[in-house]
Amino acid sequence: MASRAVSGYLLCAVALVFLVLLQGTQSVYIQYQGFQVQLKSVKKLNDLVGQWVPSPGLQDQSPQPSVCHHPALPLDLRPICASKDAASIFQGLRTIANDDCELCVNVACTGCS
User: Fold this and answer.
1) Closest to 99 in 3D by CA, of 43, 34, 20, 26
2) Sorting pLDDT into bands at 50, 70 and 90, what band is 58?
3) What is the pLDDT of residue 98?
4) What is the Cα–Cα distance from 12 to 9, expressed in whole angstroms?
5) What residues contact 57, with CB distance under 8 A and at least 6 apart?
6) Which residues does 62 contact at the CB level (< 8 Å), separation at least 6?
7) What are the helix (H) ranges across 52-108?
8) Looking at the whole model, is its pTM more than 0.70?
9) Which of 27, 53, 55 lies closest to 41 in space, CA to CA?
10) What span is annotated as the signal peptide, if there is one (predicted)?
């Protein structure tokens, strides 16, 4: 009886791990200007752009878009900040994300259904 309970718990644990891994592989990605980022990161970018107001001195000192200095900027977006075209890349990503990327309307989107 105890071995049956352990077997049931083990089966549940394996199923849970499988579901977590499967969920991670179901991410929607956007490929744009040589960068591949997750759609959820671009949605986070939209939120950050709307709420982030950097200090005026920071804007004058840095050629990077101000959102590059936000501590909550997703990790997969950070390499874009090193590009000289970072501002236009961020704008392009935000536009693509708003174009029903989850429905694969835009060819830059992969992993959607």
Assistant:
1) 43
2) low
3) 76
4) 5
5) none
6) 68, 69
7) 56-61, 86-97
8) no
9) 27
10) 1-27
The candidate with the shortest Cα–Cα distance to 86, out of 77, 76, 95, 74, is 77
* Cα→Cα distances 96→30, 58, 63, Å: 8, 28, 24
Tokens representing 110? 């992969």
Token readout for 82 is 């090193």
pLDDT digits (tens, 9 = 90+) for 67-109: 898 899 999 999 999 999 999 999 999 888 777 666 666 777 7
Structure tokens at 75: 């990790």
Q: Helical H runs in the chain?
A: 2-25, 39-51, 56-61, 86-97
**CA-CA-CA-CA dihedral for 21, 107, 66, 59, to nearest 10:** 160
The number of residues making up the chain comes to 113
Six-digit token string for 4? 């049956």
Q: Which two tokens stand for residue 21?
A: 């891994």
